[in-house]
Amino acid sequence: MTAEGAPEGVWVNGRPNGTLSPLERGLHYGDGLFETIACLEGRPRFLKLHLERLETGCARLAIPRPSREELRREILAAAAGAGRAIVKVLLTRGPAAARGYATTGAEQPTRLTLRYRWEEDDPRLAVEGVRVRTAALRLSESPALAGLKHLNRLEQVLARREWNDAAIGEALMFSSSARLISGVMSNVFLVEAGTLRTPLLDRCGVAGIMRRVVLREAACVGIPAEEAALDAADLARTRELFLTSAVIGLRPVRSLDGRACETGAVTRELQRRLAPLLTGAADG
Amino acid sequence: MTAEGAPEGVWVNGRPNGTLSPLERGLHYGDGLFETIACLEGRPRFLKLHLERLETGCARLAIPRPSREELRREILAAAAGAGRAIVKVLLTRGPAAARGYATTGAEQPTRLTLRYRWEEDDPRLAVEGVRVRTAALRLSESPALAGLKHLNRLEQVLARREWNDAAIGEALMFSSSARLISGVMSNVFLVEAGTLRTPLLDRCGVAGIMRRVVLREAACVGIPAEEAALDAADLARTRELFLTSAVIGLRPVRSLDGRACETGAVTRELQRRLAPLLTGAADG
C-alpha cells in the first residue's frame, strides 16, 4: 500500500528503491530526458516508439545511448502485473565529475524508472471532451531543444499553476513569437475542412508519441494532415480540436476559454481507429 | 582526499552525505534554484546578496522560502575552514507528492549544499584578460524565468559543449530574438565612451551577483552605467568589454572571436575598486 500519488515502484539503474547522487546532472541542469508510458495488463503501449524517441533525444543531447534491451527489460519489469500503470523513465547524463556545465564524455548515464498507479479515467471525457483554457505563460523558443522530452520543465510547472479548477483539463500554450505550440501536457490538433493541422515543433514543444501515432493513423485512413506554423487566428477559427498524449490517448476539446467546440466526424473516426491500439487489442 | 573535481562535502537538508529522493521535482522538472558562492578563509563572499537572490527566486517560482538563518548556517558550515572553496546551494520545490507538473502547495523544499575545492586562478587572467568566442546556440526567451538562477540549464550545457579549447575561457550568447545576453557562465559589460552597458535581462539570462556589485560600485565612483537591449552591432563596435561572475569576479576580455580587445581605464578602475571586496579585505 502506497500513499496516494506516490509511486508503487522505483528503480535506479535497475536497482529497486535506489536513491540519487547529489551530483546528478539531471538535478543540477535538467541534463536528461524522460518518457511517460501508459501500461495495460503489463504491456507498455507504443514501447518501440518511446524507446526510439529516447534514443533520438540521446543523440541530440550527446548523452550515451543506453542499451535498448536493458531499458526494455526494465520498463517491462516495472509494467508487470495486472491492471493499469504509468511507467515514467528518466535518463540523465549521470553524476557530474566536476562542478560546472562542461561534460567530460566519461559520464555514466542514470536510468530512473518509476511505476505509478493509473486511475481509470472518467469515460465521459473521451465522449464529451475536455474543457480547455489558454495559458498566459508563453513557451520559450529553443530549436536545439525543440521536440525533445527533456528535463527542463519549469515553464510547464508555472503554466500548470495558472489554474486550479478541476473542471479544466488542459491549457493551450503559445510560444514567445506567438505560435500555437501545444497543451501543458499534451499535443493539440485542429480540424479544419476535413484536414488535420498540428503545430510544427521546430522551435519548442514536445514531439508526442500519440501525436506521431495520430499522424500515422490519419495517413492510413486518408485524412489529410499537416504540421504547420499556427497562431491565435488559426485557433480562433477552429471549431473542432482535440488533444493527444501517451496517457490520455485522444480527447476532444469540449470548450476553449468558455467557447463551445464541436466534435466532428474526423475526430470520431480517429478515436475509432485508435481504440484498439489504446486498449491493447492491436499492436501499436 | 577526494577525487579531482568531486565535492569535499555534501549536505542534504543539512545532513552530511545525504542522498536525494527519486521523486525530487528538482530532477523531474528542474523545479528549483541555485547559488554558487565563492568562499575565502571560511567567509562566503556576498552572502547577503546570494541569500536575497535565492529568496527573490523562491517568491517568483512560489517555492516556500527557507529560513534565512538556517540557510546561512548551512552555508557558513560548508564554507568553514582555511583556504578557498566554492559552495553551491540548490533549493528545489522538493519531492513530488504525485506524478505530473501540478503542485499541491504541501511540498517540502529540499536544500542541497556542496563544497568544492576552488583552485587558485592564473593571475594573468585578471591582467591580460580572457579569450572569448561567440556561441552558436541562442538562449530562449522566457520573461517568467528571466533573471532567475533556476535549474533549467540544458542550453548552457549544450553551449558549453561548443568548444573544447582550454585557451577559450567563455562564450558570449545571444537570445532567440538576437539580443546579446551574457556568457554561458558569466555576465558581460561593454565599455563605450566611458559608459558601462550590460544586457537588460528581462527576457532571459541570470541576474548575476557580481553584475549587481559592479553596477553598484560603478554608481559609487560615478561611472555611468545602463542596462540596455544590446545586439550584435553593439558587440561589434565594442573595443573594451569584461565578464563578471561570483567565481571569477571581474575579468577583462582579451579577444573576441580572435579580434583583439583592449582593457581601458574604466575596467581597471572597477578592478581596483572590487579588489578589496573580492579578497575579503572589505565587506561585500
What would your notes on this structure say?
Two copies of one chain form a homodimer. By secondary structure, chain A is of the alpha+beta class. Chain A folds into two domains: 9-117, D-amino Acid Aminotransferase, Chain A, domain 1; 123-279, D-amino Acid Aminotransferase, subunit A, domain 2 (D-amino Acid Aminotransferase, Chain A, domain 2, Alpha-Beta Barrel), CATH 3.20.10.10. Chain A contains eight helices and 15 strands. In chain A, the strands form two sheets. In chain A, strands 7, 8, 9, 10, 11, 12, 13, 14 and 15 form a nine-stranded mixed β-sheet that branches. In chain A, a hairpin with a 2-residue loop joins strand 1 (9-12) and strand 2. The longest helix of chain A is centred in the first third of the chain and has 15 residues, at 47-61. The first copy, chain A, is globular. The mean pLDDT of chain A is 96. At the A-B interface, helix 1, strand 5, strand 6 and helix 5 of A face helix 1, strand 5, strand 6 and helix 5 of B.
End-to-end separation of chain A: 32 Å
- CATH level 4 superfamily of the largest domain in chain A: D-amino Acid Aminotransferase, subunit A, domain 2
Strand content of chain A: 25-35%
Task: Name the shape of chain A in a single word.
Answer: globular
What name is given to the CATH topology of the largest domain in chain A? D-amino Acid Aminotransferase, Chain A, domain 2
- Count of DSSP E strands of chain A? 15
| Overall CATH architecture of the largest domain in chain A | Alpha-Beta Barrel
Share of helical residues of chain A: 25-40%
CATH class value of the largest domain in chain A: Alpha Beta
- Structural class of chain A, by secondary structure, is alpha+beta
Oligomer class: homodimer
Order of helices and strands of chain A: EEHEEHHEEHEHEEEEHEHEEEH
Instruction: Summarize the biggest pleated sheet of chain A.
Output: 9 strands, mixed
How many whole angstroms does the radius of gyration of chain A measure?
A: 19 Å
**Structure annotation, total helices of chain A:** 8
- Would you identify the regions of chain A where 5 or more consecutive residues have pLDDT less than 50? none
**Most extensive contact:** A-B, 64 and 64 residues
